[in-house]
Amino acid sequence: MMKHAIETKLDIEQVWEALRSIPDPEFGINIVDLGLIYSVECRDADVSVVMTLTTPTCPSGSWIYEGTKEALKGLPGVGEVSVSMVFDPAWNTAMLSQEARRQLGWKDEP
Amino acid sequence: MSGGWLAVQGRLPLAFMGLGLAWLVAGTLMLLAVPALLALPHAHPHVVALTHAWVLGFFVTVACGAVYQLVPVALGTTLANERYGWWHFWLHALGVPGMVGSFWLWNLKLLGHFGFAVAIGIVLFTINTCQTVRRSGRRNLVAWSVAASGVWLLTTVLMGLLLAANRHWLFLPVDPIFLLRAHAHLGLVGFFVALLQGVSFQLIPMFTLGEMREWRCASIGFCISQAGLVVLAPALVLHHGLLSTLGAAAVAVGITCSVWAMVRALGTRKKRALDPGVRLFLFGGVGVWIAAVAGAVLVAPWTAGGSAAGGYNAMVYAIIGIGGGLLPCIAGMMCKIVPFLTWMRAYGPHVGRGRTPSAGALTLPRVERVGLALQAVALVPLVIGAWTLSDLWLKVGILTLAAGVVLFAADMLGVMRHLWRPQIETPVPVRAAK
User: Fold this and answer.
1) How much is the ipTM here?
2) What per-residue confidence (pLDDT) applies to B429?
């Protein structure tokens, strides 16, 4: 799934920045670079995020999900926050950003 | 997911990890107090007490904690019964010290009482793991290995009770040494190796972002090892040389298949640099394989018998298997699980509210590396000392091991300190909207 963003009033960069503040505890890589964020939509002050986990049984998944909501609710001027967790399509390593690959020491190109 | 469930998550496995750590220190203190224990015959009551302090106190405690944490993750479900888990914890926490003390004093009646308490705990553990497997609906290698390891652990404990009862009442005309060997191999191969041959293939690819491509090879390896154990255990009781060799060889072949499957899985990993815990765990896997091959050679009828220097020595085999196989596997497991569970409890609730460290950042990397390395290095003087019955080499080995255990325990306690003193950094202020 391609990441996409629909922006109206809320600064989309603020949303991405807030999401980048959330690390995965196992790899120490933020959830954006890890490829866990499938889409971000901003309509007026409302923000809607679709995300996934590296595996549906990720033991820290609940905290990452709750933390994502908390981080977005803390944005100045934000209205309704909606975070949806999906597992279709399933996460795979092709979704890792170049920065994440660098941190993992993965040299191969996608 | 409810907040209440999140709040209690990880408490049970962490309790087992803390208890296991205490046993690691206690077992090391026993060795420091009486280094000559490793030069005694393996059936000596003090050696049996030491073995139970390490195996039942440290290894089984940590492995059970790991099962309570990792098996629901690996099988995509939740633990069937948390209350059974706590009952198991308290029975184990009270029963094992009593067992170790009873062995040391050679009080078989007392041993029976404490052993019964431990057995009840293991019954609850086995029911819990089997129910967890059943509710997961999975019938793959991981599920079978978890169920099998639980059943083998229960069989081991029941056989241990039978052994103690037979020493007291002598109702079975079997040499207790033969029963002791079967009891030990049921535990080591049945519980630990079966668990490693299954759960590792789910977790190591998860930790290293790799892919498991050799499920067939791993499954065949598991089945061959299981079949080997079914032959080996009664053959050891009956002291049947050829069948014991066949059983031990099958176990070794099965582990070889598992090692090959793991090597293939590691080749696909995206996380190139392995964590110290994963590295040590894999080192331990190789140690288990070496011990299995050594065991098959030692049990063969044509191998020189006796326990004299240069000949067959059960202590050398035990040190290779336990010190070179199980210790690195279990210590490596702790290096992954303890920081993660601590993170879950100390930092999970702060995600999104402040900057939280990664689980790996809770450790002291240099202390951890040196501690684990010393534990591995200690194997060499310990094996030399046990083989040549040299007090000097045994003391060097035990001191090296103790130094490694001190650093390892300091690192683990440093991690657990975050449970009471989490270090939350102030969040970076998000810039105002344009």
Assistant:
1) 0.86
2) 52
